[in-house]
Amino acid sequence: MRALFVIEAGYAFGMGHLLRCRPLILHFSKKQAKIDIWVRGSPNILEGRSWPSLMKTFHSSEDVPPDNVIDEITRHLEREHYDWTILDGYGLTNQNPYSRLTASGSRLLTLDDTGEHPLHTDILLNQNTEDPALYRDQTNPECRLLLGPRYALIDRQFLAKRRSSTPTDKLKRILISFGGVDRKNRTTRILDLLDKIKEPLSLDVVLGTYYPFDDQNLSCKTSHPIQFHRNVACLAPLMSKADLMISAGGSTIWQACCMGVPLLALQTVDNQEKVIGTLIEHRAALCLDVSNTDHHEAGVAETLFLDRFKRLMNPHLRNELSTNAKKLVDGKGVNRVAAMLENQ
User: What is the pLDDT along the chain (344 residues), one digit of tens a residue?
Assistant: First the structure.
């Protein structure tokens, strides 16, 4: 099989699209498939992580209009045959590129999070919601829907560290991660709030590749011991040590669920609404909507945050959330999606 992954990634787009596609790329590579990647976004975006040695990479600047990028890729598809084009990026999917990307015989798999725009595609993957009504009248009749966290694209390292034991009685070690950019600097806000917790805590703070703020004074924001981790290739080792993870509501959420890490999940942008809704429906995390940043403090209200955090100090609640999260995400989504592409 031959597949071209087309992904938006970098400072303007974040890292979520790239990192959720990576497990599928590595899976196909291990099965001797021919995999190439085309990235619209920041240069050198692939550095710092392992990729298939024979993978060809193509790049378009984030300044290039998405419609022009689709035209470039269409010309590439005329020169190179691929069985599948896998498309992940809002700017590109909103162009309705189906007729152009499939004109040379490639079929199209589109990843989506919101269901807000019409999408003509052969297969549509939304790992954040199980609700097919979201795509009623939004897709072509023959489109195959892959919906919900059972299709979450999880790297095998997270499955390998999946917890079999119940969470610890004491809440001690906290992992904090707000993705590749954290434009509203919610990292600083959370450190400020955790300083109001008098019980001893140990904090692991992940700063993404494009964290845009000065991090020199972050350790002054809290009296708790703190370790900073930059450009982490895989969060699995840190998750395996955490009693609780505080995370933005992106794809990292499904990794934590797979491992059974108790979660305080924060909706930081509107397109994370489906993720948060699924977590609440399955009681797989405590959640907080902090996407409204019209006021100060990065949208994170002190009373609401501390209420959620103090509830999570209860080991019985953490155990319940961990159990439900592992039921929700079994870590085999890559196999399910790959089988769908290989058998069509």
Answer: 999 999 999 988 989 999 999 999 999 999 889 999 999 998 888 988 899 999 999 999 999 999 999 999 999 999 999 999 999 999 999 998 999 999 999 999 999 998 888 999 999 999 999 999 999 989 999 999 999 999 999 999 999 888 776 667 889 999 999 988 888 889 999 999 999 999 999 999 999 888 878 776 676 778 899 999 988 889 999 999 999 999 999 989 999 999 999 999 999 998 899 999 999 999 999 999 998 866 567 889 999 999 999 999 999 999 999 999 999 999 999 999 999 999 87
Q: DSSP label at 153?
A: -
200 vs 173: CA distance, rounded Å: 9
Same domain, 161 and 309: yes
Residue 12 shares a structural domain with residue 40: yes
Per the structure, the complete domain to which residue 21 belongs is given by: 2-154+331-342
- 141, 164: one domain: no
Both 280 and 300 in a single domain?
Answer: yes
Same domain, 36 and 118: yes
Q: What is the chain's length? A: 344
How many whole angstroms separate alpha carbon 193 and alpha carbon 52?
A: 42
Tell which residue, 216, 240, 245, has the closest CA to residue 230.
Answer: 216
Asked if 176 and 67 sit in the same domain, the reply is: no
Report which of 224, 256, 235, 238 is spatially closest to residue 324, judged by C-alpha positions: 256
Name the helix (H) or strand (E) containing 29: helix 16-30
pTM tops 0.70: yes
Of 246, 179, 192, 183, which Cα lies nearest the Cα of 220? 192
Q: How many folded domains does the chain comprise?
A: 2
Is 111 within 8 Å of 21 (Cβ atoms)? yes
**3-class secondary structure, 6:** strand
Residues 17, 114: one domain?
A: yes
